[in-house]
Structure formats: C-alpha cells, structure tokens
Amino acid sequence: MQMAKKKHIIDFPEGRGRYWYLFWIGKVKYDKQRKVDFYFYNKMMPDGSWHNNIDYNNWVVKTVPVSFLSEYSIGSLYDAKEEKLLPLSHDNSYNFTMHDSYYMTQNKFPLIGNEYFIKNSSEIIDNSFKYLKVFGKNKFKKNRCILISPYTILQYLFFYNDKLINKAFSGEILSGFNLDKIKTYSGLGDEIGKEIGELHYDASKLTKQEAIILAPFFFIKDEKGVKFLWSIYSHVHESFFNNQKEEGSTYLNISWEFKKYNLGVTGKEMYALDSEGKKVDYLLAYRITNFTFLNKQPYTVDEIRLFPFNAKNSTKDRKNHDPIDVTRPSIPETEGLSLNLTKDTANNNPAGEAVNEKLRNPFYIPVTIVKRERQKEAYSVDLQNGDNKNKDVIREIENLLEFADTVRENIQNTIISIGNFEYFREVIRILKRNYLDSLPNFNLREFSKNEIPLPFQFVEIGYLNKYIYFVEFGNGIIGVFNKELFLRIPVENLFLLGSEFNDYENEIKETSKILWSYIKNQYSRDYIARGIVIQLGAKHDRPRKGDGSITDREELITKAALRTAKKLFETRIINNIL
C-alpha cells in the first residue's frame, strides 16, 4: 500500500529516528482558536516493533488546530522527512457486541503509570477524562479490556471532515438544522408502508454532504443521536466560557447512550497491574474499524429527506418556495445523494489507507436531498390514516382483551410480577440484615455501574480473608463463583469476568440454554485453569399467589426472598468461607 501525503503537516525537532508516533490525544484548548494537544514519541523504524525502536526519552507535545483530528488519530505514524502519514496497522483487531448501554466512564485511566505509555501520564490525564471501557475478543479468542477515547469514536463517525470538526466545536451542527420543522409521516401511494422523516437544513451553514452525514443522528430512536451531537459542543462550551477565563482547556466528552451494536477496533496491546500486582491485559484503541447496529431498524423512519433553505442560488421570489398544504405529495425529485452510496459523504478512512466501501459508515439508511423547485410539492402533507392502519389498531386491541381474559382466568396461579434485579436486591438486603450483620468479621460489597459497567449486578461476600461472589444476570439464576483459596478478586478482573459472561450470553441468545448452566458446563475447566471456580447457581425462589395466608404483594416478595437468602447463606457462604 502506498503512503499518502496529507495536508496537515507538523514540524518536529531532530530525533534519533525520522518517525514520530502519536501516542495520545490530550485536551482541547481555546486560545483565539480551538486547538488540541498531540503527544508524540520519536521512533526509529516504521514497523510495529517496540523494543529498542521507540525513544521514550524523546517525546514532544504539539498543540495543533482541532481540524488536524481529521487525519491524526492515536497510533498515527508520521514520516518527518517525507512529511507523510503512514498507514495504521490492523494486526491487533478486536470485536465485541454491546446489547446494553455502556456509558463513558470517569474512573482513573488504567494505563496511567505504564512505562510504555506517555510519560507523566498522571499529570496529563486527570479526572476530567471520560472514556469507553468495554471487553472484546480477537481472531485468536484472546480477551482484552478495551479502552476507547471519545476522539476515536468521533473520528470514525464524522471527524474525518475538517469543516465538520470546526462546526462541531462551535455549535454550528445543530444550528445548521431547523429542528422546529422536523417531522415524520407515513408514505402514500407507491410508498405505503414507509415512514419518512423530513429535515430542513441551512445551506449557508452546511454543505449537502455534511447534511447527509448528520441527518441519521436526528432519527435514531430515543433521541440518543441528538444528545450525542449536542454533547460535543455543550461540554466544551461549558468548560471554556462559563469559567470566565480567557484561556481554558478540557478533555472532550460525549454522550454515548447507544446500545445493541457491534463494534470492531484496532489498537496497541498493553497491560497494567491491579491492586494485587497482577497483570491485566488492555487494548488502547487506535481506530474503530466497524460499527453496526444489531437492531434491524434503529431509526424511527425508513427514509430521510432533506430540504435545504438559505441556498445561495435560491430565487428572489421566496413566496414561490413557501410550504403549501397538499393532500398527497408527488414523489419529490431528488439530487441523487445518499449516505450509504455516495463516496464523498463517508470518507472516514484512516490516513494513508485505501477506503473499504463496506466500512464507511454505520448508518445504512437512505438520505436524499429534495431539489428546491420540487420542495413545494413535498411540504406539509395532510396526513390521512388509511383503513389498513385502523384495522391493525382494532386487531391489536382485540388481542389485548383476549389476553387479559386469559390472565384473569388463571390469576390464582400467576407468579407475582417483580423484576429479577429488584428481587436480587431484596435478597441481598435480607442476607445482610438477617445473617451477616449479626456475625463478626463478615462484610458485603455491592458493585456500582461505575465500578463494573455491565448489565449485571455483582456482590462480594467476605469473611476475614476469604471471599465468594454472586452475580445476577436478570434471568432468575444467581451465579456463584470464587477464586482459588477464596482470595479476593480485584474489580478490574471482575469486570473482565463479567465481560466474558456477557459474551457467553450472546452465544446462547437464540437458544433455550440457561446462561450460568452453560458457563458451568462449557467453561468450568477453562476457569479452573485460570484459578476461578464456577459453582452451582442458585435459583430465585419466586413469590406466588396464595403463599400461605399472605395476600400482600410486598410480604409475598419478602417471604420468597427470605427463602433464597437462607439458601445462599447455608449452602454457599457457610459451606465455602465460614
């Protein structure tokens, strides 16, 4: 693959090597213009070797305009002699599936202190830095905890465009759309069955390509895309302008609430030591290689139509382009631009690399721009519900009524409705109150989502220097496990274990298998080899109507939770660590 000469050139001092390796992207600064810190190490050779190749005593910080983010990512290698960026290696590629929302974490960055990371990292990466912390496997089934900077996420989505980067930091992305006129409607005629989204953008602020790139965010379900776009500007704005300082600096932060997606990354394998001095494997993500929603329809619409206004070539007789009411629009004439088809709309390839058409952009939804002379025929549709839609609604109501009758006929045998996690919390509360608090040297720790950002709930039970662990998956079976000799498991290692459990849950997603039984049957030997003992799980003892003479819902739940807590204490805790 040939090297590609790029437009953002950086001047470097003399070094032992001619190459400069971008190890970290730091804070955004505001000094007349928005800039960002790049941390480079000097490198002797362009290959992927590290020992005796990087001069860790020769590193520089380059403060450059934020537009440089379109070409430079963590892991970029710059040839100072030829003034070229070299291709990134994709050797260390990992993939993972996210079914639940993983939010940006603000815990201490795990690589701080690593001798092969940036020097003085504790001073450079403060508590304001938030990052995505997930778990993935590579082609060799090698597990890693993956650390993803918000810059890396944005560089995949649309920070490959210089102008969009500047507009994101200045707030022009959202102001470039007329959100008061955003709407959706059902297609008519040849488009029956389609939901169409209509969005108006300011052609004086956004180009056609920029509008097409951004449009899908406005129609992602639950408004998570709009929150994401807004967060890029709002966080920087708050940091810079609310503190009344002429100069300011802050790490970029984003709202990341997406779920049900596949993500692929490539990066540098590194490690850090946990609180017990044991090695934990990490991957510092350089670049996202693919992003795909698992939901076949992650949008509220099937198609997006863009209507430009304030175009430079608009006619003087504006009244001819004002919206008019029509009962049935003709199919609007478009300019033939589509997000998943047009080359210029998603040029998010790594610097110096050829573009892989299949991995251009995660948003596979038709986006078209309606020509100005045809807009008046597509505005303000008088929406009429057809007979088919009314019949569907009536049919759904009839089905619900039939279901309700069935429930009423069997009410005496119906399990009391309670969420599995709510039930688990009640079990742990009773376990602590009725058993552990009355015994010396016992302690119980519930891990928060900030500590272990997984869709599971972990609990640690300790007695003197012995520990056993419970995990609730939300499926009615409590997992039980411990380390050899009942030693304590650090939080980082618990997270890695939980990420593996999440992976196994995906393996049986389309089957009738029970997760903890599957883990115990399939992977017990693997875990024993790693010093982890997978024990027999504990089933929820569910509350039922007619449980003795009790009729109150809360009492029924408490009675069932008492039975489960007693079972956990007698058969798991006493038998293991007491």
Radius of gyration, in angstroms, nearest whole number: 28 Å
Based on Cα principal axes, name the global outline: globular
Instruction: Quote the average pLDDT.
Output: 77
The amount of beta strand, in percent, is 25-35%
Low-confidence stretches: 1-5, 242-246, 314-361, 375-415
The counted number of beta strands is 21
Please tally the helical runs, counting DSSP H or I stretches of 4 or more residues. 12
Distance between the termini: 63 Å
Please provide a brief summary of the model.
Helix content is 26%, strand content 26%. The protein contains twelve helices and 21 strands. Helix 9 (420-436) crosses helix 12 (553-577).
What are the salient characteristics of this protein?
disordered N terminus; alpha+beta; six-stranded antiparallel sheet; globular
Element layout with pairings:
Elements: E1 19-31, E2 33-43, E3 54-65, E4 77-79, E5 84-86, E6 93-98, H1 121-124, E7 132-137, E8 143-148, H2 150-157, H3 162-170, H4 172-175, E9 177-186, E10 195-202, H5 208-214, H6 224-241, E11 248-250, E12 261-273, E13 279-293, E14 303-309, E15 367-369, H7 372-375, H8 387-409, H9 420-436, E16 442-446, E17 457-463, E18 466-472, E19 477-483, H10 491-507, H11 515-529, E20 532-534, E21 538-539, H12 553-577
Parallel strand pairs: 8-13, 10-14, 14-15
Antiparallel strand pairs: 1-2, 1-4, 1-11, 2-3, 4-5, 6-12, 7-8, 9-10, 12-13, 16-17, 17-18, 18-19, 19-20, 19-21
Helix pairs in contact: 9-12
